[in-house]
């Protein structure tokens, strides 16, 4: 086999999850994989392997090559490998996306967690938007990955991103009902939390036309009468964005409450 002659070819090997070629390259070339960084994206090989869920490559890089610095390395989007392992889709790095279902991602996260635990690092690693791996996992609907992160005891479930959004905000905005169930029922987070500008999870779900999320929030006693800094309620937002199904749901909920006083 022809050995790769450029850094781009190395990343291509990792992106394809080709462990055999990667082993051959590492044994025949004078290269330190832990210091290899993509010129364009700032990715390391570990970023790419975590992003595509290449568990065997991650095992090789971490356990056999002894990679340590790359675990903490942020790319130009501010994301570390742990962010990528928690994500299903990463629009900021679309060129690396592969068209296949998420498989083995929880195991991938667990391997990274073991190494990071040895380093004693916090798992609240933020990207340029203030997003943590826990946010990424739940926004994408990966509750099992989120549970793995939470069970380490090294994540702050009350973290807010740079827009002041909590976990409840981001999963409501994404319309991820299983994630909503987890953060509300298991993590017991405030369903009526508001950002500095008064935006509630119900505001975001209504704006994004997340009908099932709106229904879930209302069923779990989200307050439809909260107002943001522009004095808009979730119903006002739904009307502004012409979310007809959400409008009907909110109006019907209001009518039901009027017929049954004391229920919110």
TrEMBL record:
SUPFAM superfamilies: Ankyrin repeat (SSF48403). Keywords: ANK repeat, Repeat. InterPro entries: Ankyrin_rpt, Ankyrin_rpt-contain_sf. It holds the Pfam family Ank_2. ANK repeats lie at residues 41-62, 197-229. The keyword rRNA-binding does not apply. The keyword Repeat applies. This is Uncharacterized protein.
């Amino acid at each position: 086999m022809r050995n790769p002659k450029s850094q781009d070819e190395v990343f291509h090997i990792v992106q394809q999850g080709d462990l055999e070629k990667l082993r051959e390259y590492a044994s025949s070339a004078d290269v330190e994989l832990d210091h290899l960084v993509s010129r364009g994206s700032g990715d390391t090989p570990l970023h790419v392997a975590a992003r595509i869920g290449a568990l065997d490559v991650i095992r090789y890089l971490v356990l056999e090559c002894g990679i340590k610095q790359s675990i903490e390395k942020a790319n130009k989007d501010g994301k570390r490998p742990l962010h990528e392992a928690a994500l299903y889709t990463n629009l900021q790095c679309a060129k690396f996306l592969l068209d296949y279902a998420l498989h083995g991602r929880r195991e991938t996260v667990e391997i990274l967690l073991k190494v990071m635990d040895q380093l004693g690092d916090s798992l609240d690693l933020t990207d340029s938007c203030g997003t943590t791996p826990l946010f990424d996992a739940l926004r994408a609907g990966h509750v099992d990955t989120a549970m793995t992160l939470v069970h380490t005891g090294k994540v702050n479930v009350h973290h807010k991103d740079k827009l002041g959004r909590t976990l409840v905000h981001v999963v409501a905005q994404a319309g991820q009902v299983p994630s909503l169930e987890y953060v509300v029922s298991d993590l017991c987070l405030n369903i009526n939390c508001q950002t500095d500008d008064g935006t509630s999870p119900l505001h975001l779900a209504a704006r994004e036309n997340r009908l099932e999320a709106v229904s879930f929030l209302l069923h779990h006693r989200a307050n439809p009468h909260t107002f943001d800094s522009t004095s808009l309620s979730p119903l006002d937002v739904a009307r502004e964005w012409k979310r007809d199904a959400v409008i009907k749901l909110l109006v019907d909920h209001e009518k039901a409450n009027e017929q049954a006083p004391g229920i919110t």
